[in-house]
Design goal:
Layout: H1 3-12, H2 17-32, H3 40-66, H4 92-104, H5 106-110
Helix pairs in contact: 3-4
Length: 117
């Protein structure tokens, strides 16, 4: 593999500029509301969503292992998994990651009282 091909591949692995700019735009909001003071309900709700995301990822990974399918995106796929969470969504591992991210951001995003004095 040439050096140019390697550097092109590395730059394509970085997040899009729009995503980075949107994350930077949220920094003043986080700093303005620091320290966050979520209620116990908000913390528990976030933990439940995180646990659901982790369980979904483990369930989907075990189904992949059972059918000898690699978890990496470019690994060989001898069969199509059509049971378990794959009945509802084609990408349960991505859905699990979204659930984990949502659970981590639960109090500051969804709570009208979080960050209030």
């Amino acid at each position: 593999m040439s050096l140019a091909t390697y550097s092109d591949r590395q730059s394509s692995l970085l997040p899009p500029r729009g995503l980075l700019l949107s994350l930077l735009g949220q920094v003043p909001l986080i700093i303005g509301n620091w320290p966050l003071k979520p209620s116990m309900f908000e913390v528990l709700a976030g933990l439940v969503v995180i646990a659901a995301g982790i369980a979904l990822n483990i369930w989907a990974a075990r189904l992949f292992e059972r059918d000898s399918i690699g978890i990496c995106p470019f690994s060989s796929t001898p069969v199509l998994v059509t049971r378990g969470p794959f009945v509802v969504t084609r990408h349960p591992m991505y859905l699990g990651l979204v659930a984990i991210a949502l659970g981590l951001s639960w109090p500051p995003v969804f709570s009208p009282t979080c960050g209030a004095p």
